[in-house]
From TrEMBL:
Protein name per its UniProtKB record: NADP-dependent oxidoreductase
Keyword match Kinase: no
Domain Enoyl reductase (ER) stretches: 10-330
Organism: Lysobacter gummosus
Keywords, comma-separated and alphabetical: Oxidoreductase
Source species, domain of life: Bacteria
């Protein structure tokens, strides 16, 4: 099958388009013919080698962390799916590979595609929708009337997180450029901070939750907007000891993560708030829970551009510029 393959870490020369073996289908797997794949910042970070310690992949590696397509074969233990089913998924971290004509995944990671969505729309959602759900619902336990700051509101995670937070009844603030201000308000943001003009830490206060997807300077300033007992949840790091325990890291890696997050954890403790790192996990049950919200229009996919499969490297280069409104998607054949 044709696939885009990472032969060695680094931004250049990028991914190689080549022939790869058809995926093995294990007893609990579904084999999916890929119709569309979402492109994520995570793909760029894996390509660049930023996750070598957390995710020690064996190269060559097929990238791709979002997929929508049609089931073409199932393993003997599979009960939820049959050939011909339209599905979408975030493949488990150990078995990524959506930038290919086919991908095999454990059925626990997969859900039936929401009927209201095209394949391209469906491929744009799993990683960002699961991230928003796991931060706001699972980790933050966001409640009606609470206040949440969602950084980078015009990005892939931000666009979905704003919509989900409003559905949960929260008051939502976000940071973005002035050019995107009206647009993120239409998504549901109550307060929009232009990061080029205003310091969000000087404008906002008394917040219950902050979802951070940006760098260390924004992370530390985010502590200032939280009220006592508030939660700072970062999807961009640094990883903390709880995450090290979650992934069964070695003693050495546990110490590394403890050191990496020591400063922000201590700062949070002094302010009477908490810091945690979240690395989104594949979860078909949560995708199923999101399905009715998507079909009802509560959560709508936001796509900036769709690239043909042959232009996968161009799609990643476009995403790397950091100006995409919503998601970048690759469409097969």
């Amino acid at each position: 099958m044709k696939a885009f393959v990472l032969d060695r870490y680094g931004k250049t020369p990028g991914l190689r388009m080549g022939e790869m073996p058809e995926p093995d289908v294990q007893a609990d797997d579904v084999l999916v013919k890929v119709h569309a794949a979402g492109v994520n910042v995570l793909d760029s970070k894996i390509r660049n080698g930023e996750f070598k310690l957390l995710l020690p992949y064996r190269l060559p590696l097929i990238l791709g962390n979002d997929v929508a397509g049609v089931v073409i074969r199932v393993g003997p233990n599979v009960r939820r799916f049959k050939p011909g089913d339209e599905v979408y998924a975030r493949p488990p971290a150990q078995r990524i590979g959506a930038f290919a004509e086919m991908i095999a995944m454990d059925e626990k990671a997969v859900a039936h595609k929401p009927a209201a969505l095209s394949m391209e729309e469906a491929a744009s959602l799993p990683l960002v929708a699961l991230t928003a759900w796991q931060v706001l619902v699972e980790r933050a336990k966001l409640e009606k009337g609470q206040k949440v700051l969602i950084h980078a509101g015009s990005g892939g995670v931000g666009t979905v997180a704003i919509q989900l937070a409003k559905h949960l009844g929260a008051f939502v603030a976000t940071t973005t450029s002035a050019a995107n201000a009206d647009w993120v308000k239409r998504l549901g943001a109550d307060v929009v901070i232009d990061y080029n003009q205003d310091d969000f830490a000087q404008v906002l206060q008394g917040y219950d939750v902050v979802l951070n997807s940006l760098g260390a300077d924004v992370l530390e300033k985010s502590l200032q907007v939280l009220k006592p007992g508030g939660k700072l949840i970062s999807i961009s790091g640094p990883p903390d000891p709880e995450f090290a325990k979650q992934i069964g890291a070695s003693w050495f890696m546990r110490q590394v993560m403890r050191l990496l997050s020591h400063r922000i954890r201590k700062q949070a403790q002094r302010r009477g708030v908490s810091y945690s790192f979240l690395f989104m996990e594949a979860n078909g049950d949560q995708l199923r829970a999101l399905g009715p919200l998507i079909d009802a229009g509560v959560i709508a996919p936001v796509i900036d551009r769709i690239f043909p499969f042959a232009s996968t490297n161009e799609a990643m280069a476009y995403l790397d510029k950091g100006r995409a409104k919503g998601k970048v998607v690759i469409k097969m054949g």
